[in-house]
Amino acid sequence: MMILALLFSLWVNVGVISPIAKAAASSTTFNCTSYGVTTVVPFDTTLPAGWIISLKNGDTFTAKCLIGGPPGATTVAMLGSAIPSGWVIINQTSTSLTLKNANGASYAETYTIVPISPLPAGWAMINRTDSTVWIKNLIGAPTGATVTVLIGTPLPNGWVIINTIGSTMTIKYVM
């Protein structure tokens, strides 16, 4: 019996814990009391929405909460991080992504992003090169506002196409 207890102790101490126990242990660490809160978790942990990997270190990584970040805030995420809703990628290196919060931005504000970046709801692409995309916030537009956007950009609610020329279309807010 003593040998079984010793083997069990060795098995637990070398990190061979069931995935359920590991998930239960790490799920309590995600307490986002404010923007920027961090926590260190095992490498195979699934992050909740709104969290990114901010630093990798051996078998662990530092997770950072981006929930409630101020408009325009920037932060660096490691490659492999999920991009939280409303955040865009403004720069990319071989190991990291620089993110910017587009949530709460003013109407007509323009951001420069990289082509792999998600496009937040209510934003439209207004210009593009192979390495850069310019996007504009259409949330909060006054009725009758018109904007020229690239063909293929998702049309936000309340906007209609009034003209198309080449690779652009003019849209108008009618609500």
What does this structure look like?
This protein has helices at 2-13, 19-27; strands spanning 38-42, 51-57, 60-65, 74-78, 87-92, 96-101, 110-113, 123-128, 133-137, 146-150, 159-165, 168-173. It has 175 residues and is mainly beta. The relative contact order is 0.10. Residues 1-28 have low confidence and may be disordered.
Helix content: 10-25%
Structural class: mainly beta
- Overall pLDDT score: 87
- The strands making up the biggest β-sheet line up spatially as 1-3-2
Tally the beta strands. Answer: 12
* N- to C-terminal distance: 76 Å
Main sheet, how many strands, which sense, barrel? Answer: 3 strands, antiparallel
Principal-axis shape: elongated
Strand content: 35-45%
DSSP helical segment count: 2
Rg, Cα atoms, Å: 22 Å
SSE string: HHEEEEEEEEEEEE
> Runs with pLDDT <50, length 5+?
1-28
What order do the helices and strands come in, and which of them pair?
Layout: H1 2-13, H2 19-27, E1 38-42, E2 51-57, E3 60-65, E4 74-78, E5 87-92, E6 96-101, E7 110-113, E8 123-128, E9 133-137, E10 146-150, E11 159-165, E12 168-173
Antiparallel strand pairs: 1-3, 2-3, 4-6, 5-6, 7-9, 8-9, 10-12, 11-12
